[in-house]
Amino acid sequence: MTHVVEELELYVLGALPPADSERVAAHLAVCDGCAAGVEPLDRVISSLHDELPPREPPAALRARILRSARPVRTAAAAGAPRRWRWAALPAMAAATAVLAIVAAASLMQMDAMRAELAESRVIAERVSQPGHSWHMDGVDRWRGAGARLFVPQAAPAFVVFRGLEPAPAGQSYTVWLVDADGRWIRGASFNTDGGTTLVEVGVPVSGFDQCAVTLESRTEGRRSGPMVMQSRIYRP
Amino acid sequence: MSDDLQPTDDALMVSLRGQELGALAGLYDRYGRLAYSLAYRILGEPEAAEDVVHDAFLLAWRGAGGYKREKGTARAWLLSIVHHRAVDVLRRKTAFRPAPLEIAERQPADADTAEEASRNVERQGVRRVLETLPEAQRRTIELAYFGGYTQLELASLMGVPLGTVKGRMRIGLQKMRRALEHAR
User: Fold this and answer.
1) What gap in Å lies between CA A196 and CA A187, rounded to an integer?
2) I need a surface site. Which of A9, A96, A221, B108 has the fewest CB within 10 A?
3) Structure confidence at residue B37 (pLDDT)
4) Chain A window 201-220: which residues touch B at a Cβ cutoff of 8 Å?
5) B64 CA to chain A: closest CA distance, Å?
6) ipTM of the assembly?
7) Is the pTM of this model over 0.80?
């Protein structure tokens, strides 16, 4: 494991290139020794915030944020209520069923949490590999969602999505790579449950200088759906 | 309601993790103005700053499960999301990036309340600490944090080697840290 103590000042000031910043963040998530060095620097950064000239946000911003927020459904929470019906059972049986449901739901939630944790570790490990990346921001109704396409030096490219809502029924998201001549090459089609999602790109990324995601009704052929997010043009 | 009846930041973060909209509203009421001030300082445009704050609070809402108290305060966590988001937006702009200090100095304060007076005192304290730094260190820190410049861009912009940029940041932050500890 390569420690990042020498890069902490650059990291807290945001002066690292995005790929390095992601690498440092991934390392800090698993290394308490390096993370301990961040806290005193955060206090200095916090003092920079105290120095900011105050600006009043638009009055409508609070309501806009609350309107956009919606509860995140986990697989366990979404699935559990449909599996049992106990309303018609006698009282004792109902109580037993409730206990069983609570226990089963807890186990399911624990399994889901374990799976989520294991997935997070895989993602943290993969994004810490050396390489470069493209950042994508959601547009139009996908504003607030984001993704980063990672191109490790010695492994296939993949994208990590955050805050992307599940695709409507019958549709899926598609990753595209765009070359300097404006040609769009189709990558993986996928869906998401709204949480952090890792998607393998599925095609080689060399020679391309932009990536994008669209919402499509078909998993093959040319692009026809609306733009969900795209990166700026960047040639590594 | 008196201050001691307000939920702590830690309590708000627990509720936020439980997807309680009231917690999101509470955090916005507490830090929305500071978040907007930070985004505005970096971007210099009200519409862009509003979008960044909107997106940052949504990211906080969706990513509250990833917050770890032992790694920092809720305020620092939230403002780091705002900062990253604002710098991302800034870096995607290919046009000229105005120097953030010049923008900040042009803008008058919005309010003149007792709370504002108190914050002014805090700001003056931090400003004094910043002013104790050599000009090159202060500029490097401010351009990196508020200007969104990477180390390589700063080396090119200031016409100095990369190692000098890193040294200015490291020594400048160390001095600020010592000065702030001394001021307590």
Assistant:
1) 19
2) B108
3) 96
4) none
5) 11
6) 0.81
7) no
